[in-house]
Design brief:
The protein has about 375 residues and is an alpha+beta fold. It contains twelve helices and 13 strands.
Length: about 375
Amino acid sequence: MKQITINPITRLEGHGRIEIFLDAHGDVANAVLQVPELRGFEQFCVGRKAEDMPVIMSRICGVCPEAHHLAATKALDRLFAVEPPPAAKKIRELLYMAFYVTDHTTHFYALGGPDFIVGPDAPPSERNILGVIRKVGLDVGKQVIACRARNHHVIQMLGGRGVHLAAGLPGGWSKFISEEERKEIEKIAIENLEFAQFTLRIFASVVLNNSVYADLIQSDVYCHETYYMGTVDENNHSNLYDGEIRVVDPQGREFLKFPSAKYFEHIAERVEPWTYLKFPFSRGGLEGTCRRHRQRRLLCYTFIEIECFRRVGDPAGSGGIRAVLRSIWPQENRWPLSTGPPPPGNALGTAYRDPLRLGAHVGVGAR
């Protein structure tokens, strides 16, 4: 059996490689995504103070430390049985929205976008952020940098630090905002909206108006129908900070809905000997694959808040979201879910140790 190795996989945080196995006829018999990076967060957190987890967990990823910081902080809320006051919730969610803008700006212009904006036929050395700038102009590159800069400024303003946050507390948040800061954030939010609309126009003019691209991303080759998972509010509207977990089937029918506190009642994890990546699987009732990343979440919602999504983001209806190859494969986070029991094994990970403790800030929290 012939083996093809793609190593390393680029445009993602962490390490990974793809192994493709061909049979005697040259057809693909099997393919696996391997994460060879040693992980260890669960183990080196044993014995540490629970209050240290938000600071430690932010080191899991260099691209999305804010998400891990907030997840650990929300876990502390449940552990200490305290409910954050409305002000603390709003600050947390506001910070996450600033992170969301920077993260998706990075994905569109540096990770996923170059293949389409520069062109899939362009040399790999040109399919990057510099190639995007050459294609759409230097002024656009300046706007991308400005967008990331102003939102990282908001993250530092709300989180106490610019990269690895230090504001998460059980039942609250150790950093408050002044009226001057609120006005500054409001101005930045307006600029973000204008930049998002500008980005959609670029995507429409460069990608969707190109019939070759449009036919490609809407073809059967690009379509992969699966189950889809996302976080929703009581009306099944998008909520990226809080809410219930909703799963819909390939036809968009609700299959499952449960509060995040009951996650492990529905989802378990398994390990394989050939990768350090974990494989979540359904505890029963769901067979096949479930995805829960970027556009995939939209299929979990009964209401799309942004009108331009229907016009630009998914011109062919929900089929465009199901066009899995439109996104970078390593970014896709596919979840192979089965109903069988997990095999025995140990979960490992990358070790990172930091003695930083939460600073003494005036903040908002549970009383």
